[in-house]
Specification:
The protein is α+β, with helices and mostly antiparallel strands. The chain is built from 9 helices and 10 strands. The chain has a 7-stranded antiparallel β-sheet, with no helix packed on it. Helix 1 (8-18) packs across helix 3. The longest helix has 13 residues, at 224-236.
Length: 237
């Protein structure tokens, strides 16, 4: 890991300093205890994704702003930008249930939060209460198998090469599937700025979902090599 990469603690402290808030003022505004914020700023404690969402909503800012390193961007630049990310340059958040790497932190006003996550909890009892936050999310499993628990569906196991897409406002938890010791996934969560998302999302995404009648959709992606092999076979015929 790059020692010069920003940490959650340095970003939280920078946010507080920019606004000229004391730790107590930051606590009052976010609903996070002062002692917890102090430990986060000194990198002695971290926060789960649900708590980070809470902070962004209380402060009325996009969650991507919490992970943005560097100075402010102009609106013009924000529409003509790109970023090549690595784990070394990611924001590393180490929580009880997940190890997160939030990618491309230099970009502000992102409409989604790209991340790599390692699942740690082995059971729902170990995980604790289901988490809920605004937006939508998807995870594509790179390694191992993950058991996904959701509020309105039976648990489903997602293995390497599969992905799952859910409404994040529904209670959910990702734990290691039975017999699996390690699992890694890449995914993304939409920003907490719902008004902005409404402007860029197609209408069908806003149709009412009957969660009780429809199972969570799991998509298996076929490896590109197989597709290439089929193409060669067709040309030979």
């Amino acid at each position: 890991m790059n020692d010069h990469a920003p940490t959650l603690g340095t970003l939280m402290k920078a946010l507080r300093t920019r606004n000229d808030w004391t730790l107590q003022e930051m606590s009052d505004r976010t609903g996070i205890p002062r002692s917890t914020l102090a430990k986060v700023e000194h990198d002695r404690l971290t926060l789960g994704y649900d708590k980070l969402q809470q902070i962004s909503q209380r402060l009325k800012m996009r969650m991507s702003e919490l992970f943005a390193a560097g100075g402010e961007e102009t609106e013009g630049r924000a529409m003509t930008r790109r970023s090549v990310g690595t784990l070394e340059g990611a924001i590393h958040v180490d929580s009880r249930n997940y190890e997160y790497f939030f990618l491309c932190p230099e970009l502000r006003k992102k409409r989604m939060i790209p991340m790599v996550a390692r699942v740690r909890a082995r059971t729902l009892e170990e995980f604790g209460e289901l988490v809920r936050h605004s937006g939508e999310e998807f995870f594509y499993v790179l390694q191992g198998s993950v058991q996904v628990h959701t509020e309105f569906y039976e648990p489903v196991i997602v293995t390497a090469g599969q992905c799952i897409y859910i409404d994040s406002t529904m209670g959910h938890a990702y734990v290691l599937a039975p017999g699996c010791d390690e699992a890694t996934a890449i995914g993304g969560c939409t920003s907490a700025d719902e008004a902005l998302l409404d402007a860029i999302t197609k209408p069908e995404f806003h149709e009412k979902r009957d969660a009780a009648a429809r199972p969570a959709e799991v998509i298996t992606l076929k490896p590109p090599k197989k597709a290439a092999a089929r193409g060669k076979a067709a040309r030979r015929r």
